[in-house]
Structure formats: structure tokens, C-alpha cells
Write a structure and sequence with these properties.
24% of the residues lie in helices and 28% in strands. With 596 residues, it is of the alpha+beta class. Strands 4, 5, 10, 13, 14, 15 and 16 form a seven-stranded antiparallel sheet that branches. The radius of gyration is 31 Å and the shape is flat.
Length: 596
């Protein structure tokens, strides 16, 4: 999947993807200028972090915190592409352009090496040597070790490294080290390396909190695993409520492909383990004794039985108790023999905080009673003696509304009210919905008030900022709809109209930018070169022009069906050109981009 895309707008909902290359005039080395027709010229560089001894290699741009591997300064790389950030660029590299390099490391005739993404600012193209040397090691236990072509994919050996062979560690990943030894580049299992304290300290100092489960080279295997796993989701739905048998099947499937279904391995209980019925009974008893939540609180239950990947003996139960309205979802962990390990009330509480005290439980319950969700899902009921009747509740809610919001004539509003109670009948309320009928049916903003009986105290009402934002959004939507009816589809508006409607993304060409006619000529040539048969299709399509000023100045031209609503059907073409140089930055078919 190409993660070098940015969003542009056609109407409000049309999203078209765009690939980016480094453009001339940027503050990058001149050699990074794209080759003709947007073909990137492979370049040699070395890893040189401005602030640390190693740089992370990621699967996609902006995954820097969870890398596939890390590589030490001085490691040679080949840059095969340069891509834009997806919005989460690591700030420590202080690159205003927030660019990523796709690199290949350690590729030889015998080894495919690895491929991934690094921040462009972490690479050096000057050819100057890096002072730091890679951490060194030797084969462990005084014996020889195998040097492999890859990190476990094929088991192909490149060489045997005798005892005492100096091994330079250039990269470190999950279970494997990429190394240089005896004139070869390849991979060694980490457990077969012996190193001194200084080398170990350098590795530990660069170690991330965790590695990406999709290791270098394993993308196709992971895709195959996910394709099979998706069949389980299609059959059984939400994995949170899968039966034990299905969770165990998913873990077994993951193991066959070399992955984990979750961060633990799900299995079926065996001889001597609790039965599922016993686990549920013990979990409910624990919630009653510890938190005073009895059987009336629970609507459903789901189970997991699992162990850590490296410790099959440390199995435990997780019992999810799904609550009825007015109660909180809870979790109980049990040992395989039935001892209560810990409990958690309300899954929104961070794991690891331990069980809630009665005071904390009461505070959490009171907090939930200030939220709309509490009052949306009560049990339908009828008012009791002494409660406000429906008309009085509507009047009280409207008074609250008009004290918080700008009032229109009373006939502008439509008011509805429903009466509810909680599960144990300790709280009753009217939920009043106030609709602004000046907006079209189906788009009317709603202001909601929950009045607790018998006195009608407001336990909840819609926040002003939320309501005001909804009004603004609806007004913009209706104005956009009006303009499209007046002018036609947004794609075919003039550049001036687009710039006025969406100034954050759209602008007008200026001095030094290629004119629209030249941009169209180049875009047409690029489509005809990229797609056989396009020359016959283009005369039936109408070009829509966008001039983007977001981050960089680009012409964006989409060839669309003129007799439709200007949304892509799969037969259109999308071209991005550098507004200054006219270089083609991307040629694609939007529908194909969505399917990647």
C-alpha cells in the first residue's frame, strides 16, 4: 500500500490519493531532484542520526515508535524513493519538509537484505565517514554459527562463521541481527551472538519499546495471514465475543504463519483446568464480593483462555462481563485453577490500575450519570405520581435550551420526550429532544436535556460548543449543496471559486507557475504514456483543474465523466504536476488507489 498520499477535495466527499517525490527547489541535495517522467534515481547514503547512535526502520512512514528494526550510524543504505509524511513525523529530526526515505539495506547476490522507511533527515549523502563503529560480537559459546541470507524466511545459509570470527552488528530486529562478517552480509540469530558490555549497552540504548510484528520481508506472509483471519471475522463478527474455540483457531492460524492473533496465545482448557461454566461462576462471585455487583448487573459474558507466547504453563482466564444499562462493563482475571488474579470495573479505566475501591466505583458511577450515554439507554417506563408530566418536562427542557442558546421563534422547534428508568429503578428521567426545524428533515440539529425525576433537575444537557459546531457544519453543508446546484459539480468549478470556498487547500497560479493549458498538455501526455488505451478514452472525459497550495504548489488534474456527478467510477485518471517545473509527480486511477 502506498502511504505517500494526501487528501484533496472534489465536493466534500471525493478523496483522491497522490504520490509525492522530492521536487526541484527544495532544500534537499541537488541530486535528489527527480529524474525525467518522475522516475526516482537510486542513491547511496549512510545512516547518520543527528541525535542518537541508531535510526529506526519502519514498515510505513510515521511508524517510528514501533519499528521493524534499528540500524547503527554508518550503515550503508540505498535510497529508492522519497515520500511525504502521513502526519506523525518524529519531531526529533526537525525536518520542516517531514520527508521519509525508502531504503534497502544489505542487499547482495546472496541476500535480499531488508527494505523499509527511515526519516530522510537521518541519512547522509556526502560520502564522509561516520566516526562510530558498529557494535561487535563473536559466535557464542566458542562455536561456529550460521550466517543466513534472510531473517528466517527461507533458512538459506550464506556462510558458516567459525568461533572467534569478528561480527559487526549493523542492525537489530525481532529475534535476528543483520551483520557483516567475513566479507559477507546476512543475518544471525541473536541468541548465537556473544558481545561485551559496551556493545550490549549500545544495543539496549537503541532498543524501542516494541518491534512491529510485521518484520522485514514478512509483508506477503502477513497479508496471507490477514486474508485467512478476515474469514473468521466475516463468519463470527466482533472478536471480543468470539467463543473460545474460535479464538483458539485464530491463534493456531497465526502460529502457522509465524504471527500472533493477539499479544497472547489463545488455547482451549485441558484436563485439570476450569470449565467455562466454572470460570463464569467464579468471576461473577468475585464481582459480587469485591464490588457489590450481582447477577442482575450482567447482560452477557465472553471468555478468553490464553498464555504468554513463551510460557505455555502460565495460562489464565479473562472473563468479560458485559453490563446492562446503568451498570459498568467489568473484567475478572482468574488463574487456570480459579484464583482471582485481579478485577477491573469499567473497561475505560487503564489496564494495570488494579481493582476499584468502593469509593472509586461510586465516583465512576456518578461520572457516568453526567454523560448522555447513560440517559440514552434506559428502560422505557411511565411517569410515577409526583413526577413531571410530558408537557411540563418539555417546557422545563426548552427553558434550559433558551437560556444556553440563541432562540429562534418558538414555532421553529419540534420537541419530543421519552421517559426512562435505570435497571434497578433507583433513577428515573425524561429525555427531551429539541429539533430545529429550520433545517431540512433528516438534517435537523438536536439539543438534548435529561431531567431527573421527581423534581426535574437537569442531569445532562448538550454542550454549547458541540451544538454550535453542529449548526456551523450543517450551514456549510447546505451552502455547498446550494452552490453545486447553482454552479454544477465542485470538480468543474473555476479555480477562483475553489480558492474562495476552500482557501486552506486551494489557490491560484502565480508568477513562475506553469499555465493551466501547459499543465493540461503535460498531464494528457503522462496519462497516455502510463495507461495503454487512454488515448482513446480521454476525448470522452472532461478535465477538472485544482491548484493546491497546501504544503506545496501543485497542479492536480482529474479526467472525469462529464455526464455524471463528477465522482470517480474507475475509468478516470488523476495527475499531479509540480507547479514550478511541470514535472509529473503522480499518475493514477483513483478507484485503483482505493483498492490497494
Amino acid at each position: 500500500m502506498d502511504h505517500t498520499r494526501r487528501i484533496m477535495r472534489i465536493g466534500i466527499t471525493l478523496l483522491l490519493a497522490a504520490a509525492f517525490l522530492i521536487t526541484a527547489g527544495a532544500e534537499a541535495p541537488a541530486a535528489l531532484t527527480p529524474a525525467p517522467q518522475g522516475v526516482f534515481v537510486t542513491m547511496d547514503a549512510v545512516v547518520r542520526s543527528p541525535h542518537s547512535l541508531a535510526v529506526n526502520l519502519t514498515n510505513f512512514a510515521d511508524d517510528y515508535g514501533t519499528p521493524q528494526a534499528f540500524f547503527f550510524n554508518g550503515t550503508p543504505v540505498k535510497v529508492v524513493a522519497v515520500e511525504k509524511t502521513m502526519g506523525d513525523y518524529p519531531p526529533e529530526f526537525a525536518d520542516p519538509a517531514q520527508l521519509w526515505a525508502r531504503v534497502v539495506i544489505g542487499k547482495t547476490e546472496a541476500s535480499p537484505g531488508v527494505e523499509g522507511m527511515m526519516p530522510l533527515a537521518a541519512l547522509d549523502f556526502t560520502g564522509e565517514p561516520v566516526a562510530e563503529e558498529a557494535p561487535s560480537a563473536v559466535p557464542a559459546k566458542g562455536s561456529s554459527v550460521e550466517l543466513f541470507a534472510d531473517n528466517g524466511l527461507t533458512g538459506t545459509a550464506v556462510a558458516s562463521l567459525p568461533a572467534g570470527t569478528p561480527i559487526a552488528i549493523i542492525g537489530w530486529m525481532k529475534d535476528w541481527a543483520q551483520v557483516s562478517a567475513a566479507g559477507h552480509l546476512g543475518f544471525v540469530r541473536q541468541g548465537e551472538l556473544e558481545m561485551d558490555a559496551a556493545a550490549r549497552s549500545r544495543i539496549d540504548g537503541a532498543m524501542p519499546a516494541g518491534f512491529d510484528e510485521i518484520q522485514p520481508g514478512y509483508q506477503q506472509k502477513y497479508e496471507a495471514f490477514m486474508n485467512e483471519l478476515s474469514l473468521l471475522y466475516e463468519t463470527y463478527g466482533d472478536s471480543n465475543i468470539w467463543p473460545l474455540e474460535v479464538k483458539a483457531e485464530a491463534s493456531a492460524l497465526a502460529a502457522r504463519h509465524g504471527f500472533l492473533f493477539t499479544d497472547t496465545v489463545h488455547v482451549m482448557p485441558g484436563e485439570g483446568d476450569l470449565t467455562q461454566e466454572e470460570a463464569v461462576r467464579l468471576a461473577k462471585a468475585a464481582m459480587l464480593s469485591r464490588h457489590g455487583m450481582g447477577g442482575e448487573a450482567w447482560e452477557d459474558v465472553s471468555l478468553s483462555f490464553y498464555h504468554p507466547p513463551e510460557d505455555e504453563e502460565s495460562k489464565e482466564w479473562r472473563v468479560n462481563l458485559w453490563a446492562k444499562p446503568g451498570y459498568q462493563n467489568s473484567v475478572v482475571w482468574l488463574s487456570r485453577k480459579g484464583e482471582v488474579q485481579r478485577t477491573l470495573v469499567n473497561e475505560s479505566v487503564e489496564a494495570g490500575q488494579g481493582e476499584l475501591t468502593p469509593e472509586e466505583l461510586q465516583a465512576a458511577l456518578e461520572e457516568s450519570m453526567r454523560s448522555l450515554s447513560y440517559y440514552l439507554y434506559g428502560i422505557a417506563d411511565k411517569p410515577r405520581e409526583g413526577d413531571l408530566d410530558k408537557e411540563a418536562a418539555q417546557r422545563r427542557a426548552f427553558e434550559i435550551f433558551t437560556s444556553k442558546e440563541e432562540e429562534k421563534p418558538a414555532e421553529t422547534y419540534r420537541t419530543e420526550a421519552e421517559y426512562f428508568r435505570n435497571d434497578d429503578d433507583t433513577r428515573r428521567w425524561w429525555l427531551v429532544n429539541i429539533y430545529d426545524t429550520s433545517f431540512p428533515e433528516g438534517m435537523q440539529p438536536v439539543y438534548q436535556v435529561a431531567l431527573v425525576m421527581p423534581d426535574g433537575d437537569p442531569a445532562y444537557f448538550t454542550e454549547h460548543d458541540f451544538y454550535a459546531d453542529e449548526i456551523i457544519w450543517l450551514q456549510q453543508y447546505l451552502e455547498f449543496d446550494r452552490l453545486e446546484k447553482e454552479r454544477g459539480p465542485y470538480a468543474f468549478w473555476t479555480l477562483e471559486q475553489k480558492a474562495a470556498w476552500d482557501p486552506e487547500y486551494s489557490g491560484l497560479p502565480g508568477q513562475g507557475d506553469i499555465p493551466q493549458e501547459e499543465a493540461l498538455r503535460r498531464a494528457t501526455e503522462a496519462v497516455e504514456q502510463a495507461y495503454p488505451g487512454a488515448k482513446d478514452r480521454l476525448p470522452a472525459l472532461k478535465p477538472a483543474f485544482f491548484f493546491s497550495t497546501y504544503q506545496s504548489r501543485n497542479w492536480q488534474i482529474v479526467f472525469l465523466q462529464p455526464d455524471l456527478d463528477a465522482r470517480p467510477t474507475g475509468d478516470e485518471y488523476f495527475v499531479i504536476l509540480d507547479a514550478k517545473t511541470g514535472d509529473i509527480l503522480d499518475v493514477s486511477m483513483p478507484e485503483q488507489e482505493y483498492e490497494e
